[in-house]
Amino acid sequence: MPLITRDDRMIWRRRATGRDLAVWAGWLVGTAIFVWSWQVISENTIWFFVSDSPRVAADIGSRMVPPAWDYLPALWKPLWDTINIATLGTLLALVMAVPVAFMAARNTTPSVLFLRPLALLIIVSSRSINSLIWALLLVAIAGPGVFAGIIAIALRSIGFVAKLLYEAIEEIDPLQVEAVRATGASEGQIISYAIVPQVMPAFAGISVFRWDINIRESTVLGLVGAGGIGLELQASLNVLAWPRVTVILLAIFATVLISEWVSARIRHAVI
Amino acid sequence: MATPIGFDARAWRPPPLVTSPLLRWGIGLGFALYLAVAVGTLEINWARVWEGLDRGWAFVLAFTEPDFTSRWRDISQGLLESLTMTVVSTVVGIAISIPIALGAARNLAPLPIYLLCRGIVAVSRSFQEVIIAIFFVAMFGFGPFAGFLTLSFATIGFLAKLLAEDIEDIERGQAEAVRATGASWLQWLVYGIQPQVMPRLIGLSLYRLDINFRESAVVGIVGAGGIGATLNTAFDRYEFDTAAAILLIIIGIVMAAEYSSSMIRARIQ
């Protein structure tokens, strides 16, 4: 505990002088970066539009009500597509993520030198690119439609599922593995009798969690042409049909709430 | 050891995840039915997908020789906007979410404030960044300002929720000890609660910085500034080599951010 003497009295300080100066310098650098960043944004902003925004917001708000409820029946098919994109994409991702996770976990990887870095590279590339960007890419390659959406969701989810799963695999109890190995089990039997039962609840939880996230993400994939309710949103925004936009947003909101409820129930039952 | 009569060791199976057989078969059957219907109603233009395979291969090849130079001006401008947007929105988002987190913690706030703050969190969490960005672009015009607002707004929901949960989990004894010394409410907050949640707050902030950078690449697609706009243009023009360069930069920055933030978190916690 640093103490300093001033006027012959010992005074308690939280940090020593050197630490104090370092913390102060850290705050100075941080503030400088913040101010400079703000200047860059400010230079690239047309402030007239910003000062005008309350009027525009009120204008859009007044156009959004009343919602065009008669538009709702046209949304069932896109909503169904959206749910399919999320579900099938998640399933596809699970199939691909499991081997990646086993390659990435330190205690199950066949080769630490070659396969583990490769698996980690797959995980990080998949995770750092948002599903909307994957969709952008796949629409350019495979054309607009549900297919691009499913693949985009799958590619984005591989990294997420594999990362959480390999962390769960690394945290298993090694004694159980040893016990099964001591019975003379083969590598495949060790995985299915000692490792899989230990990570199964985590795996189920992760899958449902990602499915829930994917429902949210698949609602906007249509903005870049990858199918689902986002297509309707884009179409309505393009023709400035604000009452329809309200209905679509409410439909998205309801879908997200329901999926969150379902996933919470399933996770509660599994874990 | 007494073996039960009629017990065959080879017939033993590990216990299933769902114990009730009726429910197990019901879930399996329902899922299979759903899959069949879902796959059946998909409208996929396989001819178009088949045609696209060439282009997909061209894109994969583009990663072997990414083109950083010919559009470097656009790329660097987009990156600068993305990075500044990330920094400013994270700082502003944290500054706003701390008071909201205090309000959303049941052990600190009275019920009306608690409900209000939980409401703000719920609204911020339920919509995708991109949808919010569309509205902000419509209100505030194209450019990084709309992106900055979007990311700040999304940060509030994320940070305030997790921080509030952490505040609810604090050790009561420490806070009570500070209160027993006759500390004012503010002193109680600073000496009794803040030290307990600070490591978590720093960890969450670093994590959010990372997320905000990733999201900043996306909001550009709807016109809210940043590298996403550049990326969108590159795809629209089928300039796969430029797109590959941008993606590689994004992956590199995310990796660097993740690595350094995990180092900082390991030192703090």
Structure, explained:
The complex is a heterodimer of chains A (271) and B (269). Chain A is an all-alpha fold and 271 residues long. Chain A folds into two domains: 3-62, no CATH class; 71-270, MetI-like fold. Chain A is built from eleven helices and two strands, in the order ββααααααααααα. Chain A has a two-stranded antiparallel sheet. In chain A, a hairpin with a 2-residue loop joins strand 1 (3-6) and strand 2. The two termini of chain A are 44 Å apart. The model of chain A has no long low-confidence stretch (mean pLDDT 88). Chain B is an all-alpha fold and 269 residues long. Chain B has a single domain (70-268), classed as Orthogonal Bundle (MetI-like fold). In chain B, 77% of the residues lie in helices and 0% in strands. The radius of gyration of chain B is 26 Å and the shape is extended. Chain B starts with 20 loop residues before the first helix and ends with a helix. The mean pLDDT of chain B is 86. Chains A and B meet through helix 1, helix 3, helix 4, helix 5 and helix 6 of A and helix 1, helix 2, helix 3, helix 5 and helix 6 of B.
Radius of gyration of chain A, in angstroms, nearest whole number: 26 Å
Arithmetic mean of pLDDT of chain B: 86
Task: Report the CATH topology name of chain B.
Answer: MetI-like fold
CATH superfamily of the largest domain in chain A: MetI-like
Number of domains of chain B: 1
Distance between the termini of chain B: 50 Å
Number of helices in the DSSP assignment of chain A: 11
Strand content of chain A: under 5%
Order of secondary-structure elements of chain A: EEHHHHHHHHHHH
Characteristics:
heterodimer, A: 271 residues, mainly alpha, MetI-like fold, 2 domains, two-stranded antiparallel sheet, 11 helices, 3% strand, flat, B: 269 residues, 10 helices, 0% strand, extended
Outline:
The complex is a heterodimer of chains A (271) and B (269). With 271 residues, chain A is mostly helical. Chain A has eleven helices and two strands.
